Batch of 2 targets.
Target 1
Amino acid sequence: MIPFRFLHAADLHVDSPFRGLQVLPDKLKGEVQESTFAAWDNLVRLAIRAKVDFVVISGDLYDGRDRSLKAQWRLQRGMEQLQDKQIPVYIIHGNHDPLHREVKWEWPSNVTVFPTDKPQAVIVPNKNASPVAVICGMSYADMAVYENLAAMYPSRPARNAVQAWNGLSPDEECTVYADSVEESTHRSQQSVAANELFRIGLLHGTVDGSAEHDPYAPCSKRELVEKGYDYWALGHIHKREVLHESPYIVYPGNTQGRHVKETGAKGCYLVNVNELGDVNLQFETLDTVRWRQEQIDVSGISSLQSIMQLLDEKMAAWKGEEGERLTLIRVELTGRTPLYASLQQESFPEQWREAWQAQELDHASYEEVSGILWPIALRISCTPDIDIEQWEATDSFPGDLIRIASQAQQHDTAREALIQEALETLLQQPRLRNWLASQSSETQEEWVREAMLLAVEWLQSGVKRP
Ligand SMILES: [Mn+2]
């Protein structure tokens, strides 16, 4: 086998709208909105710098079914830069950017888009025009695909493609992309054997189900292992994961995080294949804006000032870790604390957040946003410094309160009655009434719990401990 290297990326979601970040100052908002484009530019630069033989992209290049012109134009520009360096790109489309009838976009000749009706195989040459791999892929035609597409992939992609390459007609189970075979005359003169080719499957879909994601193109890991490919280049799940080695089954994750649940470094894999067909994976970051979620345990801390100080120390340390990249962070305070009521009452989260934000903007120069660590939220998930179980067992007013609250948490009718009674005056307002009706029972349970904790803590300051 001839050694070669390629980039495997997926889920670029170029031109993601980043709704819900309207509250950001303009210069940060601009950086965030540009980030999916910038990650693409970084991918193109990396491919050129690493001198890869080709690039594969496993779906969701665009964020929306109706690709914006701006997104198409930026992708086009990158593809042209890759073309200048003779780097081919192999693409499938996914659930966010299906290849529907209205899509009319002419890519430069280095780009191969796999069709929607059935999988196709393409023989891929390295920089010296020697065939090194066969890639098999297929695109979505619709936004929701519930069929098992993997089942349609041929189990002998190399043999089929090689037959076509060598001028023989391929088996029925898979069509071969004719362009790659015919376009270059010096290539078609080489004869090639199937066992010399590295087999890559491009698939956008869900392996072994996952409650968090739309179950598009579901299949099992076992099924992929048994198909007889060397590398499954997957897309769809935005969290990077190597599901299997030998054969490799890989989700590279998205190239740029798009909200606070998509935390940590984002990028793609640089895949090196040696003469024995052994695979070496190297993760390369591409993101320009990073998301982070952190927890701080404040139990044992006795003043708001000390909590402030601890927050500042932690933030400074995280800022150091992130370096030059704009980072958006959500911080959560946890632990049992006597400051519970103060943290709830004194709009502590808003005050701290605003103070830190002002300081970050102060340090940033006019258009420069590098190195900013921007708190988007400070969430208080602490519990008061009281022993709920001990109180609950007592014949006291706090004991009664805890028992009523736990009844209301467990039983829908009891909770509704309690909330109706407590919010009677507010419920005169039709809009508030509608809003209340739209809240989930989990949210309402949380209200009851928080109200109970707060009330018991207030009472405790005036009542003797049991
Ligand atoms: Mn996606």
Target 2
Amino acid sequence: MIGGIYFGPPGWHLPDIPPVTMDPRRDPPPHPADRTQLCDYLAAADLGQTHPQFPSLANQTASVSGRKIKKIMISALSIIPESRIGAICAKINPAEILAGMDLITGIFSSPTTVLAYERIDQRELRPLLKLARSRCRLLPLVSRYPAAHPAILARIVAGCRSADPLEEGILTVDLLTCLLLGRSLLHGTLCSHRPVQIFMAGVSPRVVWAKIGSSVRDVFLQAGIDPGAMQCIANGLLTGREIDPATAKVDSALETLALHLRPEPETPVDCIRCGWCVQTCPVAINPAALYAAQCLHDGVAQANPRDAMACIDCGLCTYICPSRLPLAACIEDMRNRVEFNLVSVAGDSSV
Ligand code: SF4
Ligand code: SF4
């Protein structure tokens, strides 16, 4: 978990995005007409998870089976503060996005479709919003972070209290999924590439189409940047992970790459009980209490591990903590222990 550095304001100027030739499909299947055919189509088109937090459309379709979908949330938001993925998709091709949206809304025949976007992206999204207005409710938000997390977005859109919106009949689809699906439908191509944003201090942000499965180092070279020995963080400085460009591969959910000089290791000090982590947590849990519990051998005595399961791993508590405590990483560790049954949850036999 990395915190502390942003590369410019969230409304950075989008560069021109060169066109890409997607790999062709040998036997393009017919347009899907129901959920089963949609699952087959998505698999044949190689369309996987394209948002670091939203589950893939294929997984959601398979897990809802015949259940009724009450709402479709289409999101142009990014979980990564510096990312402008919604604006990038709209700039690439609004018609392809609409083709994907129309197929999804037709197959799930939900009574309501909501398109959530951030106001700061409004200029780039305008052509898409104009076309989408007659198809869905438009929901402008003032901040994409952490509203882009499916659990938080579902709470804003539908008052959903569950950590899994699908349990309450809400399907969540990101704009890139709509774009790649639409492109595949209109042109019979595989979803072989995805846009990746590249950030480096002192250099204006770049956007390149990266081939899925290719080397991350090649993506940097494609953008005219040599990563050298700099630290490379994939998918956001708050929530991302350090990767080695020489060995890491592009996957379908790789949204951003950031390069910067390796920071000095931080030296945490004791909690000063300022309460900032509690105030900032979007799911209203107490990171300081969980951290204190995790530092004890018996872990759970001082805190409810269910709280750890509610954490959406947004990284805000770590970012804001003046004592530089690794709160989110610690809570993630507790979550893993709960998932692997190393910590018992009182009164819940299912965990
Ligand atoms: S990472 Fe921290 S702020 Fe974010 S949800 Fe988890 S506990 Fe709350
Ligand atoms: S923000 Fe850090 S110092 Fe402040 S209460 Fe939370 S853990 Fe303690």
